[in-house]
């Protein structure tokens, strides 16, 4: 199968990925708002964000969104480190999550 | 091969299905959870030749599923490829310790998936061949000594798969482990090897069943004595075990070897006919992996292997020369 044919074959998967990306970025956004509002109870929300980022990172590169995947992976690891050492600085971690949300929005709605 | 892919991300399963459909030699079945996967496996008419398991899944994860599969007769040696994020060394170590054959990093590409599947297909083919060392070991461990077929043999120089010993993995998995892990991940780990002394004599004297039991018991002694460091051990053939140990700042090899030999001695190993076996190991020079990758990491394994066997030969020669030296001094 040629590279072009593979690319054609991936189109429906890419479309499904974008649908899921939309849902995932909405969920991450909601969890991040909760984290900002209730930092003392941030753990479960951060774990949910990490799980979503893990999925985004796992498939983005294969579907042509390598930059999004790299950002998601960085944010995922940063959250893991923060959960391991909760006394560490949280703001840089939240900035990395926002980075992912911005990259996702650029893909989902390039006009904005 | 008939492949079962398990991942909680439907996009990963879509991608795997899409890529594998392009390989006429393979078919794939998918499951979104371990529960679904186990449901597919109870159907005896649908055995799988290979598994692709996501490591991180909610509830029961891929590592647990790997352990479950290795605990079954049917899938004890079936190739298991773990799907994991890059640089996720903690998970990778756990996966190999649970019995994984190799891993694929996400995101993956068609060519890398193809390459990895063709490698494991070769392993799967060997599993199906009744003359293979793996089959022989499986058969040996599943039979009583009295039931052993006379023609069943174990090649002294071939690696032997060892089952149900924590921290001990197949030799091919060990090579995959050091080949695939990034330089950064392996940096600081130590490679070392231990050889059972007079292994050729033991091999000649013992039945295949007893020989396999000795190798298995010694592997357990080595793996236990290397605790509490994180360690992986494999049997590379010719009585030699290679080990990758992480987090050992300094190693007193002399004490470690003494510890292992005392441990083996406490096991009171004997042959099936009750004859006591005096099994002792010696070690080669340990080597720290510093910025090694790919072939150079494999070279480190081979060097450790050679070093341990040279140490065994040297000890035998030295023992043989004791009286000569004493005589000439006198």
TrEMBL record, chain A:
Q: Which domain of life is it from?
A: Bacteria
Which UniProt keywords are present, listed alphabetically? Two-component regulatory system
Iron as a keyword? Answer: no
Q: Which Gene3D superfamilies does the UniProt record give?
A: HPT domain
GO molecular function (one): protein kinase activity
Q: Name one GO biological process term.
A: phosphorelay signal transduction system
What Pfam families does the entry give? Hpt (PF01627)
Residues of the HPt domain: 14-92
Q: Does the keyword Repressor apply?
A: no
Q: What is this protein called?
A: Phosphorelay protein
List the lineage, top down: Bacteria, Pseudomonadati, Pseudomonadota, Alphaproteobacteria, Rhodobacterales
Automatic annotation (TrEMBL), chain B:
PANTHER family hit by this protein: RESPONSE REGULATORY DOMAIN-CONTAINING PROTEIN, STRESS RESPONSE REGULATOR PROTEIN 1
For this protein, the record's InterPro entries field holds: Bact_response_regulator (IPR050595), CheY-like_superfamily (IPR011006), Sig_transdc_resp-reg_receiver (IPR001789)
Keyword match Protein transport: no
Q: Which GO terms are recorded in the biological process aspect for this UniProt protein?
A: phosphorelay signal transduction system
- Residues annotated with 4-aspartylphosphate modification: 54
Can you name this protein? Two-component system response regulator
| Stretches assigned to the Response regulatory domain | 2-121
Q: Does the keyword Phosphoprotein apply?
A: yes
Q: Name one Pfam family in it.
A: Response_reg
| Species whose genome carries this gene | Thalassorhabdomicrobium marinisediminis
- Identify the SMART domains for this entry: REC (SM00448)
Alphabetic keyword roster: Phosphoprotein
């Amino acid at each position: 199968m040629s590279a072009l044919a593979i690319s054609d074959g991936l189109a429906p998967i890419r479309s499904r990925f974008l649908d899921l990306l939309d849902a995932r970025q909405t969920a991450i956004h909601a969890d991040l708002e909760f984290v900002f509002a209730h930092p003392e109870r941030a753990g479960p929300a951060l774990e949910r964000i990490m799980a979503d980022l893990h999925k985004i990172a796992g498939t983005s590169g294969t579907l042509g969104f390598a930059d999004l995947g790299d950002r998601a992976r960085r944010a995922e690891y940063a959250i893991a480190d923060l959960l391991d050492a909760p006394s560490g600085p949280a703001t840089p971690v939240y900035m990395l999550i926002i980075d992912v949300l911005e990259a996702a929005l650029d893909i989902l709605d390039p006009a904005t | 091969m008939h492949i079962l892919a398990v991942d909680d991300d439907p996009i990963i399963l879509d991608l795997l299905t899409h890529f594998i459909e392009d390989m006429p030699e393979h078919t794939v079945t998918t499951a979104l959870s371990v529960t679904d996967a186990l449901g597919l496996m109870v159907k005896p008419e649908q055995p799988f030749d290979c598994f692709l398991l996501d490591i991180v899944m909610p509830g029961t994860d891929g590592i647990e599923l790997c352990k479950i599969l290795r605990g079954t007769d049917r899938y004890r040696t079936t190739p298991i490829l773990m799907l994991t994020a890059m640089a996720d060394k903690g998970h990778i170590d756990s996966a190999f310790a649970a019995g994984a054959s190799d891993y694929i990093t996400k995101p993956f590409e068609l060519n890398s998936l193809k390459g990895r599947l063709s490698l494991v297909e070769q392993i799967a083919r060997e599993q199906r061949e009744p003359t293979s060392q793996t089959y022989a070991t499986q058969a040996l461990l599943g039979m009583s000594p009295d039931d052993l077929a006379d023609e069943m043999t174990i090649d002294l120089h071939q690696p032997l798969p060892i089952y149900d010993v924590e921290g001990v993995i197949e030799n091919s998995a060990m090579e995959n482990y050091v080949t695939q892990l990034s330089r950064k991940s392996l940096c600081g780990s130590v490679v070392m090897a231990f050889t059972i002394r007079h292994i050729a004599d033991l091999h000649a004297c013992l039945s295949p069943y007893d020989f396999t039991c000795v190798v298995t018991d010694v592997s357990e002694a080595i793996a236990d004595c290397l605790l509490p460091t994180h360690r992986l051990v494999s049997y590379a053939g010719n009585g030699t075990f290679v080990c990758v140990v992480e987090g050992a700042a300094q190693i007193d090899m002399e004490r470690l070897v003494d510890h292992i030999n005392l441990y083996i001695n406490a096991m009171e190993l004997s042959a099936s006919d009750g004859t006591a076996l005096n099994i002792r190991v010696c070690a080669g020079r340990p080597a720290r992996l510093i910025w090694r990758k790919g072939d150079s990491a494999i070279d480190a394994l081979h060097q450790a292997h050679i070093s341990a066997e040279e140490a065994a030969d040297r000890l035998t020669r030295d023992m043989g020369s004791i009286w000569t030296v004493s005589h000439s001094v006198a």
